[in-house]
Design brief:
Length: 213
Amino acid sequence: MRVVIAEDSALLREGLVRMLELAGIQVVSTATDAEGLLAAVELHQPDLALVDVRMPPTQTDEGMRAALVVRERWPQVAVLVLSQYVEEEYATELLAGESSGLGYLLKDRVANFREFLDAVRRVASGGTALDPEVVSQLLVRRRPDSLARLSLREREVLTLMAEGRSNAGIAMGLAISESAVAKHINGIFTKLDLQTTDTDHRRVLAVLKYLKA
């Protein structure tokens, strides 16, 4: 896997490089601003662009804007966005288009080495990785009564589902049986008026479609 990293914090940038290289992932270029990111993606055509939302010169949305440009110009390049906080407006804009090969994580998740690398690999292979906090806040903002319809366990299952977890992965993460997971998923689809499907990728798209509704 070949990755380009756009992050203006030298400490975090070097930490990401070291983490990925230790996992056998090649970092072909790094950038500290949006212009550098776009130039690196055009030159290297990586499998994944790892992008900070806020970058110079204004530290507002340069990184997100650049990520959207990457999605438009080089659709074959997966994009994983990192943010210090849940930026609802930016997350909604990012999710408005094609959702395959796309991720949005809070920077705190980087500290969990295994889960972060799992998200990187999943997004690079065409999957989806959404931070649980992003999922929860978008659900609340989009449909205020939506979470109220779900049990606590169903909320946990929905969060892992939106991250791209399989039934087996959800069962392991919550220490429950796969049959229990399937039951919870059916309940979620019923309460949220989502089409039931046995295909992991399609059900993640269904969740994303719900979030964008």
